[in-house]
Structure formats: C-alpha cells, structure tokens
Amino acid sequence: MEGQYLKGKKTGTWVKWAEKGQKISEGGFLYGKMDGTWMDWHGNGQKALQSSWVMGKRDGGWTYWAPDGSLEKTERYDHRRERDRGYSIHTDLEEEELIRKVQTERLHRDWERLVGKSVASLVKPWQIACWVLIFIPFFALVKAGTPWRSAAFAGVLAFLVTGVLTWSCDRKKRGAAGD
Fold first, then answer.
1. Are residues 61 and 127 in the same domain?
2. Between β-strands 57-58 and 47-54, what pairing exists: parallel, antiparallel or unpaired?
3. Are residues 68 and 133 in the same domain?
4. pTM for this one?
5. Domain count of the chain?
6. Shared-domain flag, residues 84 and 127
7. Of the residues 68, 89, 110, the one at which a domain ends
8. CA dihedral of residues 140, 146, 151, 152 (deg, nearest 10)
9. Is residue 75 located within the same domain as residue 150?
C-alpha cells in the first residue's frame, strides 16, 4: 500500500497494489477513516466495486461487477443510519498487528473459559508453564535424593517471589487502568 499518514492516521489518497503490480484498491482516508469514493479491481484488471464512504461509514450507491465486467448488483447506503464498524483497508504491517491482537484476545477468552474469569484474572498461562518447568525438575531432584536439593529449593523460592511480584504488578497496572 502507499499513502500518507498525518499524526499517525491515514490521510489522503491510498492505493493498494498486488505483488505483480496491478492496482487492487484506491480511495481516500480522512482522520484514519475511509472517506469518499473507493474503487476496487479484480485480478484481471476489471472493476470489482465502486463504493462511497463518509468517515468510515458506507454511503450512497455501491456497484459490484463480476470478473468478466458484467454488472452483478447495486446497493444503497445512508451513512446517517450506518454504525461505524471500523471498515478499513490495511497495510501488511497493520494486518499483522491486527492478527496478533485477535489471536491474543482469543487466547485470553479461551483461558478464561478453561479456568474461569476469577482464576484467569489471577493466573496467566505462562505462569502455569513456569510452575511446571520449575516443579518437574524439583520433584525429580527431591525424589533422587541428590545434593542439588538446595538448588531446587532456591529455584522454587525464586519462582514464587517472581510470581508474587508479577501478580502484584499486574494488579496495580489494572487498577491504574481502571479495569
């Protein structure tokens, strides 16, 4: 994609290109939201969609074409009745960040479903993994009766202290954020 940012938000005309150099999409942004007329093209160069936007909301007539150039359908929208759903066209870096965010949120929801919201608010999955990584060697050392017992106890103590500190920092951070 090519275009300009103003204060961290997309502004002006933006163009998205395919790897082989053909134009995929072109239109304008205003304060980071799609605005004005947008054109999209099929891979063969035929028009795919002509759409109209007002500050990220669909508006006016929309026309869709099939890859052979024939008219598929038309639709009408009124931006005053549209809810802003965050429609946008993203750069590769923005898409990667959005994917990471969605994956993180999904992991968090899955963790909450697995252990419940109250436990999930106190214990993170990585903390459980640390417990497993510490206690498996610890129990192996204790069972074996080797002289490494004191090192295992020191490791467990260090983990517990780190866990408590992390937990208290997380709680303070959430309290400061108003969660």
1. no
2. antiparallel
3. no
4. 0.55
5. 2
6. no
7. 89
8. 20
9. no
156 burial (CB, 10 Å; 0-12 / 13-18 / 19+) is middle
Whether 108 is covered by a domain: the verdict is: no
Structural domain that includes position 72 = 2-89
Residue burial 121-135, b: 16+ Cβ < 10 Å; e: rest: eebbeebeeebeebe
Rounded to the nearest angstrom, the gap between the alpha carbon of residue 151 and the centroid of all alpha carbons in its chain is 41
- Give the C-alpha distances (Å, rounded to integers) separating 37 from 26, 42, 83, 87, 95: 9, 17, 19, 14, 22
pLDDT tens for the 179 residues of the chain, in order: 899 999 988 999 999 998 888 999 999 999 989 999 999 999 899 999 999 999 999 999 999 999 999 999 999 999 999 887 777 777 767 778 878 888 888 888 888 888 888 888 887 877 777 776 667 666 666 666 655 666 666 666 777 777 777 777 666 666 655 54
Residues composing the chain: 179
Asked if the structure places residue 79 within a domain, the reply is yes
Residue 133 falls inside a structural domain: yes
Packed helices 125-144 and 149-177: angle between N→C axes, nearest 10 degrees: 170
Task: Identify any residues that bridge with 64 across adjacent strands, giving them in sequence order.
Answer: 49, 73
Determine the Cα–Cα distance for residues 35 and 11; give it in Å rounded to an integer: 9
Please check whether residue 14 is in contact with residue 3, taking contact to mean a CB–CB distance below 8 angstroms: yes
Residue 71 lies in a domain: yes
